[in-house]
Amino acid sequence: MSFRYHEIVPVEQHYVVNASVELQPNPRLQELVDGGLSIPFVAEFTITRSRWYWLDETVVERNTSFRLFYHALTRQYRLSIGGIHRNFSSFDDALRAMLTLRNWAVAEHGNLTDGETYNASLRFRLDTAQLPKPFQVAALGSRDLDLTTNWVHWNFVAQALDPR
Amino acid sequence: MKRLILICSAVGTILLFLLASAGGKTSLFEHNYPLLLSLNVLLAVGMAVLVGIQLQTLWREYRQRQFGSRLKLKLIIMFVLLAVAPGTLIYAVSVQFAVRSIESWYNLQVDSSLESGLELGRNALDALLNQLGERSRSIALELGDEGVPSLSSLVRVREQLDADEVSVLTTTGRIVATTSDMHNGLAPDVLPSSQLRQARVGRGYRAVEGEGDKLVMRVVVPIASRQFQTDPLLLQVRVPVPESLAQSAESIQELHQSYQELRLARQGLKRIYLITLTLALLLSMFAAVAFAFMFARSLSEPLSILAEGTQAVAAGDLSPRQALPSRDELGVLTQSFNRMTRQLLDARAQAEKNSAAVDAARAYLESVLANLSAGVLAFTGDWHLRAANQGALTILTDDLTDFESMALPDWPVHQTFRNAVLGGFSDNEGLWHKQIEIEHGEGNIQTLLLHGSQLPASTSGGYVVVFDDITELISAQRNAAWSEVARRLAHEIKNPLTPIQLSAERLQFKLADKLSEDDRAMLNRSTQTIVNQVEAMKNLVNGFRDYARLPVPKLAAVDLNALLREILTLYEGSSVPVLAELDGDLPLVLADASQLRQVVHNLLQNAQDAVTEQATPQVTVHTRQDGRRVELLVRDNGPGFPAAILTRAMEPYVTTKPRGSGLGLAIVRKIIEEHRADISIGNRPEGGAEVRIRLRLAQHEVVVN
């Protein structure tokens, strides 16, 4: 897994993250979802400010959990993001929807100082700790379930939108 | 090592327990399962390393054939077998059991019945959905007649269908009109435009959607309008599934999902059980082996101590060993071993003390025997020489080498002695005494006094002969006898001598005038002879008297050299010259000067008498210091002492001179003996006699006193 692109942009009140994750076709994953397993993913995001005199200050730390599962009764794939559910008729649609982060509000304008340079880090991964135990064990040595992007780091200068 | 093993075992037990309890659904460690697992694996590897180290140590000990390592190995193998065999059995049974039972959870029947239930739910929902779809279609037809449906008609439709929401949309997703019983002001949920386009044709879009935890049916059907419109309208109806049906269907769905999940997890579960069981086996096995080492060591340690102890005892080291404080049999064994060595030590010390005492006693006896002037010979019962002291060797003047190997009757030498001893023992029972004289040729006779005694049979029998060389003693007795004789003779003879002399002189005086010339001459000669002979006899008697009545010497420090020089002046101009070779650095000697003077006179007189017949007569006097004595040597180059009288030369009345009294040397010896000095006479190898006198130092005497 790797990020196709990632960015942090200021919108009206917030800074939002837009990113897209590229995932190779993974039949094992679909097999598990079709089999009825609820697959947890998590997107982790932090903003740090470097301090020359001490460890970097963590300004913002955000996690968003995803769950992808098959609802057999309605024959639909469901994606839960936080408390919100979305239904998809195909696995690929659901997966694509999950792998595309859009307008993820990560910070308010007040959190960041204008003109300051911050370091953003983003990662998207299968949350193995939330998997049932047997799958944790199975995931240990499995390449199919080693689903995690590396941390991507980039610097940005905080610049809130002009309120006008 | 011991502590490490204990800690490892405790930690392993805890970790295993956690691992096993993490198998439960709701556990603190559910999310840390991989961590827990890796910790366990790490521990197992650590214990394997521990066991490996111990095994290697043991193997090295075994290879070096260290004492106790075999027993240790045997014990360990036993322990390990005891621990591992049942463990492995339980492991195998458990694995089989777990795997089989996991398999048995999933059977086709449950699967298909769940599937059927789900299908039932789906069918029920589909029936509802179709019903809603048909009704919606007919309503859409009705609405189509109106053109653009009014909001009031939508509300009517909503109430008619008991719907949550009724909306009129364009195919692009724009909302034309909507009514909802939820007054939350939110815009209604709209399908993506692709699906909306599909909904335009056929029976429209029908689907049951999950919304949160409830199910909602959504139907989108085209509103067939008579008016031509570029953008045809769609009617969207969303009706919640009746609650009871929704719940039942949802519960079946959930059950199905968890069953499916379990089915998928089957492999993983098996793996978990396998791993947990294997880890448990490995940890317990390693712990068992490690503990086996500990126990084996604690069992074989006392043996090592004992082995060390026995080796030390064998090597003669009886120092106490470390004793095990334990109160079991092994501890008792080491303790009693220690007690044994202590007793051995005591016994050995006692034995050493005893043998030292015996040795000392024997050494004392031996030294007494050795320093005994008397000779002692011990024989075995069959007359083999068993022991001889120094005195015996000296008296017999023989080393008696190899005489132990021959019986007394076979002795090739000392025949007189041998015969006397054999005769003594054969003639007498028990103690006997005998005096024998041994001829050493040339008239040299040695007188021995033998005492024979038979040893009691209790001390293995045998014979002991004690003998003294009493030659000297006899000589002394003879001297004493001579002194007595001389004294009496002097007394008895001297008394009549003076009247005889006076009578003879008176006869001459009275008769000389009355006789003829011839007779007178004869009378004078006879009288003269009588007087002379009486005079000679007087001298002789005086000599005897002097010999018998030598005064006790008054010992004082004397300069021997000065005395000799004084004496030698008297011999200047005599027929035989006397040479003096005097040691210039001579200490004072302890002597009576006048008696010593007589000794020197006598010796010089003898020497001069001896050399009269020599072509170049020579007499020398030497003095020198010899250790703590001063030696005075008088030598001549005469014929020397005849061998026959050498041993008796100093006895009275022994002389080689035709007119000698035989008292010269006797007096010398008596004086020297009174001085507690030594005298010895002998013949020099180059010819001539030598008399050696060894006088004591005055200084030494003073110090002693």
The proportion of strand residues of chain A reads over 45%
**Regions with little confidence, pLDDT below 50 for 5+ residues of chain B:** 701-705
Q: Describe the largest sheet of chain A.
A: 6 strands, antiparallel
Order of strands, main sheet of chain A, comes to 6-5-4-3-8-9
Cα(first) to Cα(last) distance of chain A is 40 Å
Oligomer state equals heterodimer
Total count of helical runs of at least 4 residues of chain B: 16
The CA-CA distance between the termini of chain B, in Å, is 81 Å
Helical content of chain A stands at 10-25%
| Structure annotation, total helices of chain A | 3
β-strand number of chain B: 17
3D shape of chain A: globular
Helix content of chain B: 55-70%
For the record, the count of structural domains of chain B works out to 5
Largest sheet of chain B: 5 strands, antiparallel
Strand arrangement within the widest β-sheet of chain B reads 2-1-5-4-3
- Helix-strand pattern of chain A: EEHEEEEHEEHE
| Overall radius of gyration of chain B | 73 Å
Number of spatially distinct domains of chain A? 1
* Averaged pLDDT of chain A: 84
Care to count the β-strands of chain A? 9
Write a structural description.
The complex is a heterodimer of chains A (164) and B (705). By secondary structure, chain A is an alpha+beta fold. The termini of chain A are far apart. Chain A is built from three helices and nine strands, in the order ββαββββαββαβ. Chain A is globular. Chain B has 705 residues and is α+β, with helices and mostly antiparallel strands. In chain B, helix 1 runs antiparallel to helix 2. Chain B has five domains: 2-105 and 258-309, no CATH class; 124-241, 2-Layer Sandwich (Beta-Lactamase), CATH 3.30.450; 377-463; 476-548; 556-704, 2-Layer Sandwich (Heat Shock Protein 90), CATH 3.30.565. A five-stranded antiparallel β-sheet of chain B has the order 2-1-5-4-3, with helices on both faces. Chain B has a five-stranded antiparallel β-sheet with strand order 7-6-10-9-8. In chain B, strands 12-14-15-17-16 form a five-stranded mixed β-sheet. Chain B has helices spanning 2-21, 33-63, 69-105, 108-145, 151-161, 193-199, 243-314, 329-370, 390-396, 415-427, 471-511, 517-548, 560-570, 593-611, 664-674, 698-704; strands spanning 165-170, 175-180, 205-211, 214-223, 233-240, 375-379, 385-388, 432-439, 445-454, 463-469, 556-558, 578-581, 589-591, 619-626, 629-636, 678-683, 689-696.
